[in-house]
Amino acid sequence: xxxxxxxxxxxxxxxxxxxxxxxxxxxxxxxxxxxxxxxxxxxxxxxxxxxxxxxxxxxxxxxxxxxxxxxxxxxxxxxxxxxxxxxxxxxxxxxxxxxxxxxxxxxxxxxxxxxxxxxxxxxxxxxxxxxxxxxxxxxxxxxxxxxxxxxxxxxxxxxxxxxxxxxxxxxxxxxxxxxxxxxxxxxxxxxxxxxxxxxxxxxxxxxxxxxxxxxxxxxxxxxxxxxxxxxxxxxxxxxxxxxxxxxxxxxxxxxxxxxxxxxxxxxxxxxxxxxxxxxxxxxxxxxxxxxxxxxxxxxxxxxxxxxxxxxxxxxxxxxxxxxxxxxxxxxxxxxxxxxxxxxxxxxxxxxxxxxxxxxxxxxxxxxxxxxxxxxxxxxxxxxxxxxxxxxxxxxxxxxxxxxxxxxxxxxxxxxxxxxxxxxxxxxxxxxxxxxxxxxxxxxxxxxxxxxxxxxxxxxxxxxxxxxxxxxxxxxxxxxxxxxxxxxxxxxxxxxxxxxxxxxxxxxxxxxxxxxxxxxxxxxxxxxxxxxxxxxxxxxxxxxxxxxxxxxxxxxxxxxxxxxxxxxxxxxxxxxxxxxxxxxxxxxxxxxxxxxxxxxxxxxxxxxxxxxxxxxxxxxxxxxxxxxxxxxxxxxxxxxxxxxxxxxxxxxxxxxxxxxxxxxxxxxxxxxxxxxxxxxxxxxxxxxxxxxxxxxxxxxxxxxxxxxxxxxxxxxxxxxxxxxxxxxxxxxxxxxxxxxxx
Length: 741
Known about the structure:
Helix 2 crosses helix 3, helix 12 packs antiparallel against helix 14 (292-322) and helix 12 (247-268) runs parallel beside helix 20 (400-424). Strands 5, 6, 7, 8, 9, 10 and 11 form a seven-stranded antiparallel beta sheet that branches. A six-stranded parallel beta sheet has the order 17-16-15-12-18-19, sandwiched between helices. The chain is built from 26 helices and 19 strands. It is α/β, with parallel strands linked by helices. Helix content is 47%, strand content 14%. The chain folds into four domains: 4-92 and 121-195, Orthogonal Bundle (Recoverin, domain 1), CATH 1.10.238.10; 217-419; 425-506 and 532-546, Elongation Factor Tu (Ef-tu), domain 3, CATH 2.40.30.10; 550-587 and 602-654 and 692-738, 3-Layer(aba) Sandwich (Rossmann fold), CATH 3.40.50.80.
């Protein structure tokens, strides 16, 4: 119950909100009410409006709204249940202001009791229940066959209709829902949150001061500190060496020494094969290998800043010297090579200007706004200027070769080996599935020499789409799958959209033998539920594989895998490999059916428990990997009936939760039907799909209570969600890793 002060403040806040919505007439019409509630469908808005409109005038006054919402949002269980009953009792005309003999508690003097049904109704029959559940499904973006909707209706009606009269009374509904005490505590209208005062953010100390933050970032922070100290030291030594030549030369030489180490570091951070190898060594626990792309970006920005300062200092020095007798003008110093000008044959000023121009172009076209808005070609071609940049650096800086010789040699070796391997044998895409939400599932023939780890990724090139573009994608098949490998690619950019459209428009081979065959490939088309399956033969090239943080999963004790949307892709490979190894670990005698656990080497798999959490926006996205998840469930049930080595947790964010009055009945019906049939109505899996978003505090709290072993959390998804999950991991002391390309 709200205190008097809180009650008064809340009323003032609602009054202000009402005034902004209602305008001069001080009344809210149905259309304004729908707009304010922001509901997907109009059914529930109309039901709520009818219940709030106590006098039946066709509009809601401030007085009516406040009275109704106070009883609903801050009322007791009976108030909330009565409102739920009235929403479902479609053929009755009820109002929250009507009183019945049911009684009810009050929160203050003069408050009316709970409302009752209109005398002409008072029960919910099967037809009414089916209508409301149908609208609940639409509001939750769930599509089920008509017979499935009938199953849900019968399940809820049979459970609540205790007297077998064919309809549900308020008392029967109350008795049924009291079996779910957590529902009674949270029952509210989520759509009415626009009428609630904003909750001030909780004051917390900065994340960087928490112990968990330092534990999860110790490698990154240590390397960042060492990197900063090395740059400062080199700058200071170079500046001290030239301290007698004026401030401009002092700054130029200090920045120049910094450019030596940083331009060499840019090459080091491009050595993907070397970085993949380092993941298998003890250095993986110290170096931030998972952040090598971000480190590359950081060093690139440092190079730009140092190059700008270095150039500005030299220009200032040339301008100062030009004012003295016997020295060339500023333009002559910058544009013409001369003996003693630095670099090879005195070309330091000219090579320096060329370097600055190339670096600025590369930095400009590497920005996210360029890469993610359909201009990948600009990023690609300007990034190829690293070849002339390093050539000019060798001509410009007399000491640069000493810093560059080792990483440069390794880079050349990697590029030559990669190019030779890619061009030695072109591969072919042999099968394609066009899945919902424009996801392309590619099945590629796997060379015998191609070895990878679960969770690895490759760079893919399809000449029929773009001969020069290479894009990274996680491998979604297990290494134990010998003949093919899978890639699941969602259409989010220009190249991925063209890939989907290419296979969508790929025609079957012509029956006319004289007709020219398309050079890209041939296809046989067959359509199934929700996807288009095509057999084809389209040439492609792969570069890789390259390692990711998920390689550490098999050395964890309790792994929590979290995928958001298409972020399941690396975990698809990992889950298949986990179950393969788990199947090898568990053996049984064919005669007596005695089963035992075969010991595997610790470095192969130390897992004791795996929790897989997959978050999707709507129902159709689950279709991407339903067959895989169903197979994993069946395998675990066969190997270990009732076992909990692998637990699946599925969440659909568009679905209305049990705490929402619009979704409570649907979720209870889904629970009842799942318990009866041992499978989920939305996905068909044994695992029940949960509505809404995960409560991370409860999820990680449960993981911590299990105490199976040291917990490591692996995430693949949006950066915004990664930040939320990382914060919870720091709070619980779990190690956190995020997929990076």
